[in-house]
Amino acid sequence: xxxxxxxxxxxxxxxxxxxxxxxxxxxxxxxxxxxxxxxxxxxxxxxxxxxxxxxxxxxxxxxxxxxxxxxxxxxxxxxxxxxxxxxxxxxxxxxxxxxxxxxxxxxxxxxxxxxxxxxxxxxxxxxxxxxxxxxxxxxxxxxxxxxxxxxxxxxxxxxxxxxxxxxxxxxxxxxxxxxxxxxxxxxxxxxxxxxxxxxxxxxxxxxxxxxxxxxxxxxxxxxxxxxxxxxxxxxxxxxxxxxxxxxxxxxxxxxxxxxxxxxxxxxxxxxxxxxxxxxxxxxxxxxxxxxxxxxxxxxxxxxxxxxxxxxxxxxxxxxxxxxxxxxxxxxxxx
Length: 334
Prior knowledge:
globular; five-stranded parallel β-sheet; Translation Initiation Factor IF3; four-stranded mixed β-sheet; Rossmann fold; about 20% strand
């Protein structure tokens, strides 16, 4: 058995010793670990690699294998990762800026044992940490928002209700500014002296079929702007009066990417995708009633579109805005 925890069978196959994953370096080959308490699942004899055959696995992180579905999930080992980054910097393998960004991207702050605040998401993923207010107790929501704003200088929340606003206002210190985007149901906190937004640029165009779709559009707009994009909008240009669309598109054609939002039968994104030479993101909205109401018909229609477009979940303004901003940035990093 070598130092890597490998052993060689009588047939010359390399196998991984059943050792705790926390003892393994994340810079080595993937090391699948099987729980010895779990019965061996039935194997499918196909072309896929066996879970314990590291010779056929080419990843750079560690993996656990669990039951009952033999599901493999990736775990991040912050301490080992930071040690490896520092070692690479000392060996001249990465620059000081690269090492700093990598370490910053792993930052997590624990808030009273109830939340793990991802303060490194902006560095790691190129998008801000956004707090979903819906489903959170107002007091808990306020504490999470304030902790995030203090740690990073800026924090955004979506799906905010009046009780969340009241909880924030009651706890807001003078050094933190609050901006409430009422139509978007969003809140932005920022500290004095913090940079306002990302600055990588790009233009995002947002269209809605009707006025009922505007709250989702405004949510997407907030996120795209937070990620440094210029956002142009044209609302209420749906297919019930299709002539409204063409004059609106004339001013939006220079955009890098289009977000098109529609409820009911959700036709508008497919039409726009057939008229522009830019990526189109369709957002089904939970308007409409009766059979397949609540956005289901719109989602099905967009998924079945014969023109080329990407589709996000029902009412997913945040996802559409973040995805559009990444496209508009054209892969540029900070």
